[in-house]
Design brief:
The chain has about 140 residues and is α+β, with helices and mostly antiparallel strands. The protein has a single domain, classed as Glutaredoxin (3-Layer(aba) Sandwich). It is built from 5 helices and 4 strands; from the N terminus they run αβααβββαα.
Length: about 140
């Protein structure tokens, strides 16, 4: 039989683990996020969602900076109020620790979006492994 004091410690630790799980306090917070300012009926926003949005979360960029969508017709979320307002949609803003790292205004097309995003993400510490591998192969 287990001594009463060990039983109490296990009970307290189990309760604490359950609290952290339920409260979400144990979740991992991304260092950066890609905030997409969009508006309903935006043709370029729809094109981005169809061509890039469907795969974004599965990419290294999407894992480094998860997508957060913000409708500009609504009031800006409290943690984004300090950012310069998006006048055009789509506007993509990379935010790290509450500060803007860079932005892409409009959807420049698939071939231009990825390099522009990668350039901004590198400022936040993103390692572009596929391009580093290509560069090393050319050396």
């Amino acid at each position: 039989m287990m001594p009463l004091s060990i039983f109490k410690v296990k009970l307290v630790l189990s309760a604490l683990a359950l609290f952290l799980l339920v409260s979400g306090a144990g979740r991992v917070v991304a260092a950066a996020e890609l905030v997409l300012f969009e508006t309903e009926g935006c043709e370029w926003c729809e094109q981005w969602h169809e061509n890039i949005g469907v795969i974004y979360a599965k990419t290294p960029e999407g894992k480094f900076a998860p997508l957060r969508r913000v409708e500009i017709a609504n009031e800006s979320p409290a943690d984004l109020k300090h950012l310069r307002a998006a006048a055009f949609t789509p506007t993509f803003v990379v935010v790290e620790q509450g500060q803007e790292v860079g932005r892409i205004i409009g959807h420049p097309g698939d071939n231009f979006f990825w390099p522009l995003l990668t350039q901004i993400l590198k400022k936040a510490g993103f390692k572009d492994e596929k391009n580093e591998l290509q560069s090393n192969a050319l050396k």
